[in-house]
Amino acid sequence: MKLQKILSRFLKLHPKEIDLSLDRIKILCDKLGNPQNKIKAISVVGTNGKHSTINAIFSILKEAKIKCNVYTSPHIQRINERFIFNNQELENEKLANLFEEVEKINNNQQITFFEILSACYFYKAAQYPENINLIEAGLFHRFDATNILKKNLASVVTSISKDHLDWLPKNEQTIEKIVFEKTSSLLNSNIIVSKQNSINTIECIKKTISKNLSKKLFFNEDFSYSTGENGFFYYEDKFGGLKLPLPNILGQFQLENISTALATLRLLDFDIKDDNIKNGIANIESVARLQEIKSGKLKDLVKNNLLLLDGSHNEDGARVLNEYLQTLDCEKHVVIGMMANKDHEKYISYFKNISSITTIDIPGQPNSISGKDLKEKFRKISNVQYKESIEQAIKSVPLKENDLLIITGSLYLAGEILNIN
Questions:
Q1: Strands of 238-359, DSSP E
Q2: Distance between terminal CA atoms of the chain?
Q3: Given 281, 304, 325, which residue is the final one in a domain?
Q4: Same domain, 269 and 373
Q5: What is the pTM of this model?
Q6: Nearest CA among 50, 25, 47 for reference residue 36
Q7: What is the arrangement of strands in the sheet containing 404-408, beginning at the earlier edge strand?
Q8: Which 3 state secondary structure label does DSSP give 161?
Q9: Do 192 and 321 reside in the same domain of the chain?
Q10: 286 within some domain
Q11: Residue-wise pLDDT tens digits, 259-283
């Protein structure tokens, strides 16, 4: 309850949820002693795959007994997920104390919710100067609150695609502009660029960072992977090749994220052993990213059928999700809820050979599109229905033996699903 009261006060510190600027957080961090200048950081920017890439790096570093701090957003179930120090989520009381200390220093000055959370993270992270910080950039990057570091160990660029277009002028809603916002202000250190969804995107990235003096690694040029038989895949870079077990997480795209994680770690030379890598990728924690729900209230409703949860919410996320779904030989049913500012028709256009689609409302999210309106947007698709609640939606799906049910469209919805379950 104490934590929620503080968060409620944070939300009232600025009239806008997002106000792209670095001025406010710089002022606050200066009052805090500029803690962001006292940490070792790997910055992760992009549209899709940021969280998964961080999870892969984190899992491998833990196996190597290297302590980490991790800052990601948004959280799925609890705000604590955004604040990991010494490899552990900060517990409620310590997190509340951290928030109150920074709140007092901020002295009621105008600052956005994400900005003050970022300042809180930097303030706490500076207490662990030897830890490796894994920091996920929020919206775009150039004016994102995480972009106040003066130096870092590396910048990782994951897959970039169109998303959050409502924050750009109509004439600038292009991949070129998004690439510029995400990569033009990367620090001079090391840049590792993951697999991109088009040649045009990778060329835009190369052009934007051409004058950056960092050492640069690009997927398929400096590192790559290939899938083998008998549950293995092969990773290769200038340091040599590795035969690795398939990870414990689903989806071909996760091999791309893991390869990017490996390229980063091997470039930075953390003295990580091959066994650390093998054990790390076998124990990656991945919440709401093609997560199989194996037990709980909602799982009971589908009985023996496979229940998957995926928080993808933009066209590139839809593309890689459906690449995975097409590898499965079964009937597929989709339950979907989305935020209002997404390209709903574009998202659903990637879904092929789907037996049924059920739209739902996302509880407690005023910025979401209603399930009824979402159904109307999908009216050209056959077998679309609307249900008010997730329980009604699942019960209404005509599941047969071996059918799959996937719930998707929003990380906010994913959090609701996990809480209900």
A1: 240-245, 291-292, 306-309, 332-336, 356-359
A2: 22
A3: 281
A4: no
A5: 0.94
A6: 25
A7: 291-292, 306-309, 404-408, 332-336, 356-359, 384-386
A8: coil
A9: no
A10: no
A11: 999 999 999 989 899 999 999 999 9
Query: What range defines the domain where residue 257 resides?
Result: 2-281
- For residue range 329-352, what is the model confidence (pLDDT) as tens digits? 999 999 999 999 999 999 999 999
**Closest to 411 measured CA to CA, from 354, 339, 347:** 339
CATH classification of the domain holding 310? 3.90.190.20
| Token representation of residue 159 | 């897959």
Number of domains in the chain: 2
Pairing of strands 332-336, 404-408: parallel
Selection from 49, 87, 75, 79 nearest residue 290 by Cα? 49
- Helix, strand or coil for residue 206? helix
Q: What tokens does 374 get?
A: 């979402």
DSSP letter assigned to residue 163: -
CA distance 101 to 105: 6
* Cβ density class 266-277: b for 16+ within 10 Å, e for less: bbbebebeeebb
Measured over the CA atoms of residue 258, residue 259, residue 265 and residue 266, the dihedral's sign is: positive
Count of beta carbons in the 10 Å neighbourhood of residue 352: 9
pLDDT digits (tens, 9 = 90+) for 141-183: 899 999 999 999 999 999 998 766 666 677 767 889 899 999 9
Residue 136's nearest CA partner among 67, 174, 81, 87 is: 81
